[in-house]
């Protein structure tokens, strides 16, 4: 994965300029739900502290984003044992969304934004607790992308993936 000391590529939703905000309407990652989240729900979630979104822009255009929020998980017993974690509910971070505009896919931006989301999650869990980062992938293709970076699929649901984060 990319060098963890890289400078942040993205900015939080509330730092977007008017022109960048306008470009929400032309963002297209090929997944309607992710396009619509950007235009219809991101602002409300960001403002109300439901989920925080970070966007990559270039020349006044949004080219990618990811969204993080805290969650509660239950690890399957084998994984809990392997990680020496309790079997009951545990705090974690959820990578709720990750999307790259079609014009930029396949150029390494997904990897860069994922690396940034992992670093940001690790910093958050170091401050407030949390055992890892989870993803609810939209489909098997997306699940394959996350697995490339060390996320492990649940044995009962291949679209639910987990990556432990450092505990200290
Ligand atoms: C999935 C997505 C975020 C990947 O971003 P991207 O910028 O296209 O990917 P990158 O260029 O950073 O690819 C990085 C690496 O992952 C690989 N990769 C990309 N998509 C992959 C996939 N679906 N399965 C397996 N590997 C994948 C690339 O081949 C590349 O590997 P390489 O460096 O060995 O060549 C992006 O394609 C996207 O937004 N898709 C539509 C929305 C979506 O499905 N989001 C995930 C929802 S949970």
| Backbone structural class | alpha+beta
Order of helices and strands: EHHEEHEHEHEE
Main sheet: strands, sense, barrel: 7 strands, mixed
Percent range of helical residues: 25-40%
What overall geometry do the principal axes of the alpha carbons give? globular
In DSSP terms (H or I, runs of 4 or more residues), the helix count works out at 5
Ligand types: coenzyme A
- At the first level of CATH, the class is Alpha Beta
CATH architectural type: 3-Layer(aba) Sandwich
Q: Count the E strands.
A: 7
Give an overview of the whole structure.
This protein is an alpha+beta fold. The protein has a single domain (11-164), classed as Gcn5-related N-acetyltransferase (GNAT) (Aminopeptidase), CATH 3.40.630.30. Helices cover 33% and strands 27% of the residues. It contains five helices and seven strands. Strands 1-2-3-4-5-7-6 form a seven-stranded mixed β-sheet, with helices on both faces. The longest helix is centred in the C-terminal third of the chain and has 20 residues, at 109-128. Bound molecules: coenzyme A. Coenzyme A is lined by residues 29-31, 34, 98-100, 105-111, 137-138, 141-142, 144-145, 148.
Quick synopsis:
The protein is an alpha+beta fold. It has five helices and seven strands; from the N terminus they run βααββαβαβαββ.
List the helices and strands and how they pair.
Elements: E1 11-12, H1 18-22, H2 32-47, E2 52-58, E3 61-73, H3 77-82, E4 90-100, H4 109-128, E5 132-136, H5 140-148, E6 152-153, E7 160-164
Parallel strand pairs: 4-5
Antiparallel strand pairs: 1-2, 2-3, 3-4, 5-7, 6-7
The chain binds coenzyme A.
The site of coenzyme A has 21 residues, from strand 4, helix 4 and helix 5.
